[in-house]
Amino acid sequence: MGLRFTVLSSGSTGNATLVANGEKKVLIDAGFSAKKLEQLMEERDISGHDLDAILVTHEHSDHIKGLGPIARKYNLPVYANEKTWEALEKQIGAIAEENKRVMETGSSMDLGTMKIESFGISHDAAEPVAYNFYEGEQKLSVATDLGYLSPKVKESVADADVLVLESNHDVEMLRMGRYPWNIKRRILSDLGHLSNDAAGEGLCELLGGRTKRVYLAHLSRNHNMTDLARLTVGNILEDNRITCQDHSYKLMDTYYDRPTEWDSLDED
């Protein structure tokens, strides 16, 4: 069995994604209470007992809220780079020493036949990362909380069969919103979040190869809408003459309150 995944929930209020193959199941981030994470996994017929590891992208609360409780309850190894460990330890409580695993940025590891690779991203955290997953020739990339799509990030996610990519906000909705200007400036900066426009412009360079589906993720509940994100990104791609028909790709939704359906890369 090849790679399959479900975005359990994604947005400004919490994030968690589950990646699996025939023998291993890995949780990326745990941005909800343990109870909520268990409910989300149960909707996709997964128990915490089925998990083999948790990967952490960075220490912000919408990515680690339930990390400590879920790791302790199911005795799970937790992987993060050294700087992220230093930043999150006081937030998550005690983790058994044998379960504190260091995976430095840019390194890779094997969990059974699944290969996992981390790469650095631009965000206002200690040392944020995103992840690639490989099973044979299959490649899944999960990259959110991106201030911008750097050349390194584009290189890292290039030719993914499926890409989960941040499309956080509509710029005008954010500018007109109620957030204080200092928060708006942070979100709009190179250490903030990727807008719908930036996601579409980046995909103009990334599509055309092997990528069959792009999931638009980490949408702001205050400054974005699912249909708007998909429409904005799709229009930018069409304006650059990148159409679904020509390149056989699909734009897919993620949700802040429920999981996506299981997506199998074997179906590509």
Automatic annotation (TrEMBL):
SUPFAM superfamilies in the record: Metallo-hydrolase/oxidoreductase
Catalytic activity: 3',5'-cyclic UMP + H2O = UMP + H(+); 3',5'-cyclic CMP + H2O = CMP + H(+)
Coiled-coil features, chain-numbered ranges: none
Pfam families (UniProt xref): Lactamase_B_2 (PF12706)
Sequence ranges assigned to domain Metallo-beta-lactamase in this UniProt record: 13-218
Described function: Counteracts the endogenous Pycsar antiviral defense system. Phosphodiesterase that enables metal-dependent hydrolysis of host cyclic nucleotide Pycsar defense signals such as cCMP and cUMP.
Name used for this protein in its record: MBL fold metallo-hydrolase
Species, as recorded: Paenibacillus aurantius
